[in-house]
Amino acid sequence: MRGTVPGLASPHPLGETLPSLYGGDSLAQRLCQGLDEVLAPVVVTLDCLPAYLDPATTPGDLLDWLAGWVAVTLPTTMPDRPRRRLVAAAASLSAWRGTVRGLEAVVELATGQVPEIRESGGTTWSPDPHAPLPGSPDALLIISLRADPRLMESRLVPLISGFVPAHLPWRLEFRP
Asked: Distance (Å, rounded) from C-alpha 11 to C-alpha 130?
């Protein structure tokens, strides 16, 4: 929770910005000191804004807020380092959302492993209009991973569901 920081000095005291007429006025200076204490956290936050917007340096409680900006659902059970990597890569991954390449990248960032992905679809080209169609008529995506299902399922399901096309049924399999 953000709030006031007792005793935090303002980097830009308001009393110094007053006209010289009020420089020696103790009431005006005390009022400015009171405002300095209230405004100091705001000024410090604004001075440090680039650090708050960088996934590598933002405080942990703001990481979910940054993830919302780039449309990534971060599971709370996931460790901090993969969460930060996912938010940092989310903008470039958005171009690959809904593709096998994008799914592989997301799962690899979250787990450190490249998954095996099997899909029912396919594309081909043929000069013969009666050539057989590739793939299977039943749509399905299977993401297979070597991991403990008790640890990984709660982390991966919300993350993967944001990257799989909405019309495509999918399932997550764990291999020993």
From this structure: 75
Express each pLDDT in 33-83 by its tens digit.
888 888 888 888 888 899 999 999 998 889 999 999 998 888 888 889 999
pLDDT above 90 covers a percentage of the chain that reads 36
What digits encode the pLDDT tens for the residues 141-152? 999 998 888 778
What is the DSSP track for the chain? -----TTPPPSS-GGGGS-GGGTT-HHHHHHHHHHHHHHHHHHHHHHTHHHHHSTTTS-HHHHHHHHHHTT----TTS-HHHHHHHHHHHHHHGGGTTSHHHHHHHHHHHHSSPPEEEES------S-TTPPPSS-SS--EEEEEES-HHHHHHHHHHHHHTTS-TT--EEEEEE-
For residue 14 the two structure tokens come to 């308001």
CA separation for the pair 109, 86 (Å, rounded): 6
Question: Domain spans of the chain?
Answer: 1-47, 57-175
Dist CA 58 CA 132 (whole Å): 53
Under 8 Å between Cβ of 23 and 17: no
